[in-house]
Design goal:
Helix content: over 70%
Number of domains: 1
Radius of gyration: 20 Å
Order of helices and strands: HHHHHHHHHHHHHHHHH
CATH superfamily: MFS general substrate transporter like domains
CATH class: Mainly Alpha
CATH topology: Growth Hormone, Chain: A
Distance between the termini: 35 Å
Length: 419
C-alpha cells in the first residue's frame, strides 16, 4: 500500500500549525488545571472528580445537536469561533485566581463552557480534514496530526509540570489559553471553498437519530465505539485515582508527574509517526487488534506500584506502552472511521460516536471521585487499570481484524440508511 504525503498541501500545513498550537496549549492545561484544583484551591478527591466531570460532560450532553450543526454549517468558521471562545474562558481562570475570585464553583463553570466549545471544535475538525486533503493523503495526514499531537503531549505535559513547579498553576493555565489564540489565527488563513448542501425540512432529531443508527449498525464503527467507551470509562477512573494518589499519598512533585506523562507521549509519538508504515506490511485490521492489545493491557503493570521508589519507573513504563499501542491504533481507527462514514454525514455520525465514547468520561470521573472518597485513591486507580484491558475484547470479536487495507473498506463500506 503506497502512502501519499500530505505535507505538499499548503492548506494542510496551515491546519497542522493551528492544531499543533491548540494541542500544545491543551496538553499544558490537561495537567495544570487538575493541579491548580489540588494545589492552589485545595480540592478534595470528590471535587477533583467533579472538575473532570465538568470538563467532559458536554461530550455527553451536547455532542449530538452540535454534530448536526457541523453538518449544516461551514467548518472553518466554527473552528475559529471555538478557539477564540476557549481563549477567553480558559484565560479567565488565572485572572479569577489573581483577583481573588478563584473559587472552584467558578472554575467548574468556565471549564464546562470551554468544554462545550471543545466538542464543537473537534467535531468540526474531524469533518474538515477530508475536505482539506484528498482521500489518498488522508492516512498520512492523520498520521502526521496524531504524531504531532503526541509531540505536543511530550512537550506540553512536561512543560506544564515545570510551569506549575516554577511559576504556579495559574501561569501554566494561561499558556493553555494562548495556544487557542494561535490556533484561531492559523486556521483563519486556510483557503478552501466549503460548499454545504442544504436539506430543507430536515428535523434535527431525525438527523441525530440517523447518526446514532449508523454508529450502532455499522460493523466497523460498532466495535470501535465500544472499545473507546470502555477505555474512556476506566481510564478516567484510573486517572482521578492516580492524580490524588501521586500528589497526596506518594508526595510526587508536579514536575515528576509531568515527566511520567511525557514519557508516555513519547510512545504515542513513535506509534503515530510509524503507524502508517506498519499497516502496509501486516494488514490494517491485524495492526489495530495487536496495538489495542498492547496499549490497553499495559495498565495491569500498575499492580506492581506500591511506593514512591518504584512509582516513576512503573508509571513511565505503563504510559510508554499505552502510548505506543494507542498511537498506532488511533491513526488507523480515525482513518477507518473517516472512510466508512459518508462525507455528508461526517458531523452527525462522528457526533454520535463521540457522545457514546466520550460520554463515558464524566461517568468515569464521577466514579473515580466516589471510589477515591469512599475507599481510597489507590483503589480507584487499580479498578481503572484493571478495567482498561476489557476494551480490546470488542475489537477481537469483530470484522476489523480481517481488514487488509483501507481501500478494501472504502469499496465495501456499508451504505447509509435511506432518508
Amino acid at each position: 500500500m503506497t502512502t501519499v504525503r500530505a505535507w505538499t498541501d499548503r492548506n494542510f500545513r496551515r491546519l497542522w500549525v493551528g492544531s499543533s498550537a491548540s494541542w500544545f496549549g491543551a496538553e499544558i492545561g490537561e495537567l495544570a488545571i487538575p493541579l491548580l484544583a489540588l494545589i492552589t484551591l485545595a480540592a478534595t478527591p470528590a471535587e477533583l472528580g467533579l472538575l473532570r466531570t465538568m470538563q467532559f460532560l458536554p461530550f455527553l450532553l451536547a455532542t449530538l445537536p452540535l454534530g448536526v450543526l457541523v453538518d449544516r454549517c461551514r467548518k472553518r468558521p466554527l473552528m475559529i469561533g471555538a478557539d477564540l471562545g476557549r481563549f477567553v474562558l480558559i484565560g479567565g481562570i488565572p485572572v479569577l485566581i489573581w483577583v481573588g475570585a478563584g473559587h472552584l464553583e467558578l472554575v467548574y463553570v468556565f471549564v464546562f463552557a470551554a468544554a462545550m466549545l471543545t466538542v464543537l471544535y473537534q467535531l468540526s475538525d474531524f469533518a474538515f480534514l477530508p475536505r482539506v486533503v484528498t482521500s489518498e493523503r488522508l492516512l498520512d495526514a492523520n498520521s502526521k496530526l496524531t504524531a504531532t499531537q503526541s509531540a505536543a503531549e511530550i512537550g506540553g505535559k512536561g512543560l506544564g509540570g515545570l510551569l506549575v513547579q516554577a511559576l504556579t498553576a495559574p501561569f501554566a493555565v494561561l499558556f493553555n489559553a494562548v495556544g487557542y489564540l494561535v490556533s484561531a489565527f492559523a486556521i483563519s488563513r486556510i483557503d478552501i471553498d466549503e460548499r454545504i448542501e442544504r436539506k430543507a425540512g430536515r428535523s434535527v432529531w431525525r438527523e441525530v437519530a440517523e447518526g446514532l443508527r449508523i454508529v450502532l449498525r455499522n460493523k466497523y464503527l460498532r466495535p470501535l465505539v465500544s472499545e473507546s467507551t470502555t477505555y474512556n470509562l476506566f481510564f478516567e477512573l484510573f486517572l482521578v485515582g492516580l492524580m490524588v494518589f501521586a500528589v497526596r499519598d506518594l508526595g510526587m512533585s508536579a514536575a515528576l508527574i509531568g515527566l511520567a506523562f511525557t514519557i508516555g507521549a513519547v510512545g504515542t509519538f513513535l506509534g503515530a509517526w510509524f503507524g502508517a508504515r506498519v499497516a502496509g506490511r501486516f494488514g490494517y485490521g491485524r495492526v489495530l487488534l495487536v496495538t489495542f492489545l498492547v496499549g490497553n493491557s499495559a495498565s495491569v503493570l500498575l499492580l506492581l506500584m506500591n511506593d514512591k521508589g518504584t512509582a516513576i519507573l512503573i508509571l513511565a513504563s505503563v504510559f510508554f506502552l499505552m502510548g505506543l499501542g494507542t498511537g498506532i491504533a488511533n491513526v488507523h481507527a480515525t482513518s477507518l472511521r473517516q472512510t466508512v462514514i459518508p462525507s455528508a454525514l461526517h458531523g452527525r455520525v462522528n457526533a454520535a460516536y463521540r457522545m457514546v465514547s466520550w460520554g463515558a468520561v464524566p461517568i468515569g470521573a464521577s466514579l473515580g471521585g466516589l471510589i477515591a472518597t469512599q475507599f481510597s485513591p489507590h483503589t480507584a486507580m487499580l479498578v481503572g487499570a484493571l478495567g482498561i484491558p476489557l476494551g480490546t475484547v470488542w475489537i477481537a470479536f469483530s470484522a476489523i481484524p480481517k481488514v487488509r487495507s483501507i481501500a478494501e473498506v472504502q469499496l465495501g463500506a456499508e451504505s447509509p440508511p435511506e432518508r
